[in-house]
Design brief:
Rossmann fold, DNA-binding transcription factor activity (chains A, B), homodimer, HTH_LacI (chains A, B), elongated, 6-stranded mixed sheet, about 350 residues, alpha/beta
């Protein structure tokens, strides 16, 4: 990432005082036209943004944080948002939320909309389409302008910024290990295509747990759906076709739908088939039986993301360093598994 | 946070008239290039956002809509939001969301934040605290500044603006009538305190349906909880204490919790006791048995709110007239009632 251009940089480069730079950029009558032209040209060349710099000078912070999430209907993202809000509000920040609806274009439009001076920094989970396109120029641009950015859950290695994720691989590994310890042999995975960073990691954990316990990894026991939406037909067909005694699902809705389907076929949960799902949302708690869940600690994730962002916003440091925080998952045992 | 920069500030700082500033920012031919450059540079530097009045002049639309809802975790509000987004996006508008968290202060802060020029109009459901305080000055101010406003679900008669609600009274009336037709005699209501406009209306419908069918209205069969959050103890105690064969709940979570409680006591649903809940969210669909629901048609409500707002934003009329759209409810029958 390019270093943030500050008044101090400009002053140093052009051998003038910070005050001169500041006045020149305000088009002050006190500064000669020649000096102003030089400073303004330099600022333009290095993509200096008055609002961001003003923000970094602490004299014109908006005290607003922009959050962009793929979807408002999935419980996980709203839980993270709640964690962000609680932390940010306690620190005197407001939070503005925009939805990408899993669309690249909407993600870009929303970033532009918020980056126009309404906010001091971003917290985001990438849209599905952004991960498919693998195009992160809109994020790079924001980062180059010196606007602090924290990615959570759906992240990318392409951008240098603070990140917070759960240990998705470990979460899946723990779930599959629990199935194996409970005596399950035909363990299936219902997941999404690999372009979601989280699905890739969970699939790795699923495979590794099988191999570490000397069970074969069989592709026919892995159902990959193109989207987060429940494709009921594809799931039913998969469950009817394969001989399965345990299912790990990468989200709650897949798991709840699957449980209802096998129950409708007369199977008993967990006797005949057991289930674990990621997220630990409201459906997991209220389904019958309750769904054993890999808790992603969404509220904690949100609080950590907000803490990282606010620290960057308020930091006086010129050299930035970035951290990726990895949260451990927890298995919350309920009636859908032997306990 | 620093004071908002207005046309007046700029005019005073640069010793020009407000009209000159206004024209310069619109790039008018009437103003000399030097003056325009100076004003525009100043405005940019101080992150000037055209004020609300400027927006109402229709010459500087942002194509953004601000939505403020009480809570992101309740399925109903997120469903309405989805309806708003779908309609607004199709019309070329972006949507920004803020949460009041049921707090009056947060509602005011978020309105100020968005009314600073980021958006062309508001869609809101009032926070619980605003309805308790009965203080709507922040809404009046926005309305007076000519910013279009649409209220949905949680509304007030104190503000003249477009509104969209469901026929809450009729929804409760229909639900109770269904219970009576199914032969139920001891029909309870679990609701919130009357400061929620929706709860008041639903309690009216509950009472009217009983009276119209010559059943007594008994206060001991009505449980009023102070908040939307589930007070599990109060609900359990109520259900254990009263002789009840049917329960209407004003939200899904009350109903789901109540069903689980009576099931844990060995009662059979709907044989011993039946349930209807408002909202028809994801929990109603996936509970066991499924919850018969009064559908509030959240997505449709959102689409109508967005349509009303965009019409006002794009209207050239000086005299405004306001409409309240009332949507009929539908009973979605599931396993929690005799069908």
């Amino acid at each position: 990432m390019k270093q943030k251009i500050t008044l101090k940089h400009i002053a140093r480069e052009l051998s003038v005082s910070i005050s001169t730079v500041s006045k020149a950029l305000k088009n002050s009558e006190e500064i000669s036209k020649d000096t102003k032209d030089k400073i303004q040209a330099f600022a333009k060349l290095y993509n200096y943004k008055p609002n961001n710099i003003a923000i970094s000078l602490k004299n014109r912070r908006t005290k607003n944080i922009g959050v962009i999430i793929p979807d408002i209907v999935h419980h996980f993202f709203t839980t993270v948002f709640r964690g962000i809000e609680n932390y940010a509000n306690a620190k005197g920040y407001n939070v503005i939320l925009c939805m990408s609806d899993e669309s690249f274009d909407k993600e870009v439009i929303n970033m532009e909309l918020l980056a126009n001076g309404s906010i001091d920094g971003f917290i985001m989970a990438l849209s599905a389409e952004t991960q498919i396109k693998n195009d992160y120029n809109h994020l790079k641009e924001v980062a180059e302008q010196g606007i602090p950015l924290v990615l959570f859950d759906r992240i990318t290695d392409e951008i240098e910024c603070d990140k917070v994720v759960i240990n998705d691989m470990e979460g899946a590994y723990k779930a599959v290990t629990k199935f194996i310890e409970d005596g399950r042999k035909q363990i299936a995975l219902i997941t999404t295509e690999d372009y979601y960073s989280v699905s890739r990691e969970r699939a790795k954990g699923y495979k590794q747990a099988l191999l570490d316990h000397n069970l074969p990894y069989r592709e026919n026991l892995v159902l990959k759906l193109p989207f987060m939406d429940v494709d009921e037909l594809a799931i039913n067909e998969f469950l009817d076709r394969e001989k399965i005694d345990a299912v790990l699902c990468v989200n709650e809705i897949y798991a709840i739908h699957s449980m209802r389907h096998v129950q409708s076929k007369g199977l008993s949960i967990p006797k005949d088939i057991s289930f674990i799902g990621f997220t630990d949302g409201i459906l997991s708690k209220y389904s019958t039986p309750g769904l054993t869940a890999v808790s992603q600690h969404g509220e904690k994730m949100g609080a950590i993301a907000a803490e990282m962002l606010i620290e960057k916003i308020e930091s006086e440091k010129e050299e930035e360093t970035y951290t990726t925080t990895v949260l451990d998952t927890t298995i919350v045992a309920r009636g859908s598994t032997n306990n």
